[in-house]
Amino acid sequence: MKNLALLISAALASASAVASYDNESIVKIKYDSDYNDVYVDQYGDDNFSKVKIAYDSDYNYVDVDQGGDYNSSYVKIKGGSDYNDVYIYQGGYGNYSNVEIKHNSDDNYVGVAQYGSYNSSDVIIDNYSGYNSVYVYQDGYYNDSDVTIDYNSNGNYVDVYQYGYSNDSDVLISGGSDYNGVYVSQYGSYNVSAVDINYDSDYNYVGVSQDGDYHYSDVDITNYSDYNTVYVSQYGYAQYSLVHISDYSSGNYVGVTQN
To answer: Which range is the signal sequence, renumbered to this chain (predicted)?
Structure first.
């Protein structure tokens, strides 16, 4: 179906003293379905949204807006689906976002914005998926971001921005994935950043910026991973940076600035 616009709104309200919310939305775009627009709006608590774009479905637009607490959003782009745009917004307490781009899916754009506390974001790009762009923005306390680029996925761009206290960011580039760019910015206190580049992954660029107190940065380049560039900048006091290069990994450049 071409030029199909779907508007899915889930809003439950109660006039009683105790309100109960339990909304669920599942959208699937499959088998050469192109140029569709999907809007999912969920208001209240305990919302669940799942969007799947699969099997050569291209140029689709997905917008998921979840307001309230305890929201879950799952987006999967797979099977040679290209040039799709996905935007996720979650506001409240205890939000989770999962985005997977897999199986030869290229040139997709994903933006995730989480506002509140105890937010978690997982981004997985793997299995020959290239030139995708992913932006993750987390504003609040106790946020966690995990980014995995694996299995010959090349030329991807990932930007993670965390603002608040006790943030954690993990980045893994593995399985012969080359020419990827990953940028992590953390503002606040008690931040931790871990970057692992391994298993014949070459020519990747990683930039980590930590601005605040009690930071810790761990960079590991191992297992025949060559010519990668990593910059770590830490501003504040009592920072700690660890860099480990081993197992036939050559020609890498790591720069650490502490102020």
So the answer is: 1-19
pLDDT in tens, 146-189: 999 999 999 999 999 999 888 999 999 999 999 999 999 999 98
Q: Which residue has the higher pLDDT, 34 or 17?
A: 34
**Reduced 3-state DSSP string for the chain:** CCCCEEEEEEECCCCCCCCCCCEEEEEEEECCCCCCEEEEEEECCCEEEEEEEECCCCCCEEEEEEECCCEEEEEEEECCCCCCEEEEEEEEECCEEEEEEECCCCCCEEEEEEEEECCEEEEEEECCCCCCEEEEEEECCCCEEEEEEECCCCCCEEEEEEECCCCEEEEEECCCCCCCEEEEEEEEECCEEEEEECCCCCCCEEEEEEEEECCEEEEEECCCCCCCEEEEEEEEECCEEEEEECCCCCCCEEEEEEC
